[in-house]
Amino acid sequence: MIDVMAVRALVAVSQYGSVISAAESLGYSPSAISQQIKKLEKQAGGALLERHGRGVLLTERGLSMSEQGRRVLEELEGLEVTLMADPSKPSGPVRVSAFSTSCRGLVGPLIRRLEQQGSEIQLRVIAEDPRESVERVANGEADLALVHNWNSVPLPIPEQLQTTDLCDDRADVLVHREHPLAGRGSVCAADLLDEWWMATPVGMICHEALMRMFAEMGILPKIRLFDADFSTHIGLVELGVGVALVPRLGRPELPADVVALELRAPAQNREVKIVYRRSLSASPAINHLVAELKDIAKAL
What we know:
CATH class of the largest domain: Alpha Beta
CATH architecture of the largest domain: 3-Layer(aba) Sandwich
Number of helices: 9
CATH superfamily of the largest domain: Periplasmic binding protein-like II
């Protein structure tokens, strides 16, 4: 009979590209993972891995077994949820991956609610960009994620993941109160061609959204600062050294010297969604968190 641990080892190697990385993700030694793979290879009657530089590649047979193994593990996870969960008492650890402004605007209020309810759900939260969050959930490193899907930068979701719409968010352009545009109320990208911008780092979805604002005009915005923390952007706008595109969700109260201008043409909107594996659809803890997050989002 095939050992489930051996299947987990092969799937992890497929996901991470090396035995060492797979071992780290599963909490085992590299030698233990190698032994599990060799056990599978003996049962399969052929090689499942082949060396490639410092990493490994799966053979055709290895790829086929890995994909089938992933589906089996998802079904096992769903079976465990169904057998072990008490619908009347959501409990247990839930690993959450969420983008930073949702941590402030949604996850923080969620944790407070759970504590007030005396809930036995224990959240473990990591702040990450949506692409990484989706990957974590798909790979089994997280159970639930909060992600955003910009109208200008769509977010791909693998088919084995379930999504739930939570709320819509909008980004404003922040300027100093003495800026010539501060009294306008709203602006468009064409009004901002000569501005110095605060931006999130290259590779983050919010950075791509800023780039695409100007793409149709064939120019790139002038970036003065790269920082993932919107609080830093707000602080520098307050000093009058640039402007910033900052979403409303989780945004703190703006300083007196900072003015938020509605952005139009093109407006920058994003859909905030909950993502989790379909195999966890029957989990009382996941369903309780989804319901609470939807209720919190209604008040935004």
